[in-house]
Design brief:
The protein contains nine helices and nine strands. The protein is an alpha+beta fold.
């Protein structure tokens, strides 16, 4: 279980809560944001005024608040520093060519996964995703591919006490989810069959660093009609495993 940091700055924590809440909406008013966060109006007003003064938030003439691109600029700088992304790019391009599907490179962040790079499928019907997008780890193939290979202590700290259902297919039972992770460890790949979003499926493999620790995951994301057993068996999983193994070797050399 997570423990409260010894030196938590409450005001900063509230400010970060505001940024994260604003990232999920186009724009919002002060009162509705205060209700959502459980923060008093005066406190929230001061936080928003500070964020606006620093360029993170913009206030419209109608007193509606929205994020600016400043947070994205910081994130983009961070992504550029991720060595794995640079190493992975040519492997991702080959995987996209071999499968004809959207390819993602993802890393864990807290209890979720974040897409740090992607290559779109050439198909006119494809899954809409973006770099920086976050998803719950427990109902995404990319997340399960990482979770299955984490040390037990880290896994216990990350997994939620209860599993919110995002779709009818979400695995919401702890025992069933643990069996799912055991299957990922046995087969070497993870799947998501409409567990996070209806109509969206994915398969993923873990990527390991030079110490043997899981560092990221590589996935193909596919509209449900193309996510067939034959496609998995004959094309998607073999290509994923081959690319994942080669990328793990290359990543280990790059970090060695």
């Amino acid at each position: 279980m997570s423990t409260r940091p010894a030196y938590l700055t409450a005001t900063l924590a509230k400010g970060l809560d505001v940024l994260e809440a604003l990232s999920e909406v186009e724009e919002t008013g002060l009162s509705e944001l205060a209700r959502r966060l459980g923060v008093s109006g005066p406190t929230l007003f001061r936080i928003l005024a500070t964020l606006a003064a620093r360029g993170y938030v913009q206030k419209s003439a109608a007193s509606r608040y929205r994020l600016t691109l400043k947070a994205w600029e910081i994130g983009a700088k961070t992504v550029r520093r991720i060595r794995l992304r640079d190493v992975a790019r040519p492997f991702m391009e080959r995987l996209a060519a071999a499968t004809g599907e959207t390819v993602h490179l993802s890393v864990m962040q807290g209890d979720g996964i974040v897409i740090v790079d992607k290559i779109d499928s050439p198909h006119p019907v494809r899954v809409d995703t973006f770099v920086g997008q976050r998803a719950p780890a427990y109902c995404s193939a990319t997340g399960k591919a990482i979770l299955a290979f984490l040390p037990s202590a880290s896994l216990a700290d990350i997994l939620p006490r209860s599993y919110a259902r995002h779709t009818a297919a979400t695995i919401a039972d702890r025992a069933a989810f643990e069996r799912e992770l055991a299957d990922v460890r046995r087969t070497g790949w993870a799947k998501n069959r409409e567990e996070w979003r209806d109509g969206v499926c994915a398969a993923a493999v873990p990527l390991f660093d030079s110490s043997g620790a899981v560092a990221a995951s590589l996935s193909v994301t596919v509209p449900t009609p193309r996510f067939t057993q034959s496609a998995l068996r004959e094309k998607l999983v073999p290509a994923l495993k081959k690319t994942g193994a080669a990328l793990t070797d290359e990543f280990a050399r790059a970090r060695g």
